[in-house]
């Protein structure tokens, strides 16, 4: 195992470049990630990458060890202090719970809840091996929280959630804060929320991407693997009837220049979110191996991705033309119409001042009807979105 300390230091140095606090960086230096991923080489473990640890019967990833930089950003959003009580939703490998245990110290308490008994067992083993047997890992539905150890000072969800569970808000003590990767019409943003009067207000919003929550509290999001050979996958905000998209992708193409130039960060951060919350036909397509997607404006960790809209047998994906020019590239029988629709959304985002995630404010109302703004209704809450620059 020689060399893992140097690899860990290099990883933390890279993560520090994202602007994380010294307190969280110290936690990353103190907790050995390789003990939570014992089947992988330390060279793989100490990259700043997310690592899939479990897939379902259809090949869709359902659990992972999150990217360390993303974990660090969320821990800074959470603002954990020594001696606090923290509830974590989604145990995963146990690595994030160990970081939390380091942050709260010996006077604090960490409870982690996961619906998967196999993951719970392994997380307990990893935590004990890493010197944190005091972390309580509970097998259960995370949407119910863990009332026996309430109230908590902080609640953090390390799985993508479609709505905020009433139990999490109820189990938070006065002055508490909840951080969760919240679904915004198919796109996730890590939102730090605090109570303000009768509702909850975001204190920070950060782009993110997490495995979705499973069980009774799961949302309607749909992820379909269209071609296992390339891992071509489509993500949709809800249930939708789609046609033979592989046939469409292999057929005629209609291209429409939007007249808007944007770099990868602007597309992934601002434009993708704008499109998702304004267009119910939003989709994201990705593939791990080249095959179906001609080009892609998004080169993510280990795969290429495109955002766009889908309707029946037709879809339109945002592509990159010469330089940073954005092009609507459409397939299927309704390709011309969809190309026009997608181009119109791109121009609307540009005309609104190109709002980004950092400009976003989210108010969460549970029971009191919201007024004004862009409202996203959920099961238990209503989200009201507004942009400072929009």
UniProtKB/TrEMBL annotation:
Pfam family name, one: PCMT
UniProt keyword S-adenosyl-L-methionine present: yes
EC number(s) stated in the UniProt entry for this protein: 2.1.1.77
SUPFAM superfamilies reported for this sequence: S-adenosyl-L-methionine-dependent methyltransferases
Keywords: Cytoplasm, Methyltransferase, S-adenosyl-L-methionine, Transferase
An example Gene Ontology CC term for this record: cytoplasm
Primary enzyme class: transferase
The UniProt record lists the keyword Transferase: yes
BP-aspect Gene Ontology terms: methylation
Stored Gene3D superfamilies: Vaccinia Virus protein VP39
Intracellular or extracellular location(s): Cytoplasm
Any one GO MF annotation of this record: protein-L-isoaspartate (D-aspartate) O-methyltransferase activity
Annotated signal sequence range: none
Similarity-based family: Belongs to the methyltransferase superfamily. L-isoaspartyl/D-aspartyl protein methyltransferase family.
NCBIfam families, sorted: methyltran_FxLD
Protein's name according to its UniProt entry: Protein-L-isoaspartate O-methyltransferase
Source organism per UniProt: Streptosporangium carneum
Taxonomic path: Bacteria, Bacillati, Actinomycetota, Actinomycetes, Streptosporangiales
């Amino acid at each position: 195992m020689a060399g893992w300390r140097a690899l860990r230091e290099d990883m933390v140095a890279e993560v520090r470049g994202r602007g994380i606090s010294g307190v969280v960086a110290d936690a990353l230096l103190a907790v050995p990630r390789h003990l939570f991923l014992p089947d992988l080489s330390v060279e793989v473990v100490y990259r700043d990458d997310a690592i899939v640890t479990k897939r379902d019967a259809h090949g869709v990833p359902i659990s992972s060890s999150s990217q360390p930089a993303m974990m660090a950003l969320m821990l800074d959003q959470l603002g954990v202090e020594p001696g606090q009580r923290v509830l974590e939703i989604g145990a995963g490998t146990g690595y994030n719970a160990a970081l939390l245990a380091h942050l709260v110290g010996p006077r604090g308490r960490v409870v982690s809840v996961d619906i998967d008994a196999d993951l719970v067992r392994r997380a307990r083993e990893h935590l004990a091996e890493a010197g944190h047997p005091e972390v309580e890992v509970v097998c259960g539905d995370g949407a119910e929280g863990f009332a026996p150890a309430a109230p908590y000072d902080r609640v953090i969800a390390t799985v993508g959630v479609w709505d905020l569970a009433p139990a999490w808000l109820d189990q938070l003590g006065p002055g508490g804060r909840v951080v969760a990767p919240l679904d915004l019409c198919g796109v996730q943003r890590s939102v730090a929320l605090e109570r303000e009067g009768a509702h909850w207000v975001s204190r920070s919003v950060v782009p993110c991407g997490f495995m979705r929550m499973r069980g009774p509290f799961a949302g309607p999001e749909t992820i379909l693997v269209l071609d296992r050979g390339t891992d071509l996958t489509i993500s949709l905000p809800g249930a939708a009837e789609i046609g033979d998209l592989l046939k469409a992708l292999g057929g005629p193409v209609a291209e429409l220049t939007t007249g808007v130039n944007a770099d990868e960060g602007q597309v992934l951060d601002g434009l993708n979110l704008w499109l998702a919350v304004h267009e119910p036909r939003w989709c994201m397509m990705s593939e791990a191996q080249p095959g179906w997607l001609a080009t892609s404006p998004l080169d993510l960790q280990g795969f290429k991705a495109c955002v766009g809209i889908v309707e029946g047998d037709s879809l339109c994906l945002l592509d990159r033309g010469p330089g940073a020019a954005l092009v609507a590239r459409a397939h299927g029988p309704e390709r011309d119409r969809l190309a026009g629709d997608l181009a119109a959304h791109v121009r609307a985002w540009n005309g609104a001042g190109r709002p980004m995630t950092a400009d976003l404010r989210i108010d969460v109302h549970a029971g009191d009807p919201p007024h004004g703004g862009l409202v996203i209704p959920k099961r238990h809450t209503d989200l009201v979105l507004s942009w400072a620059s929009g």
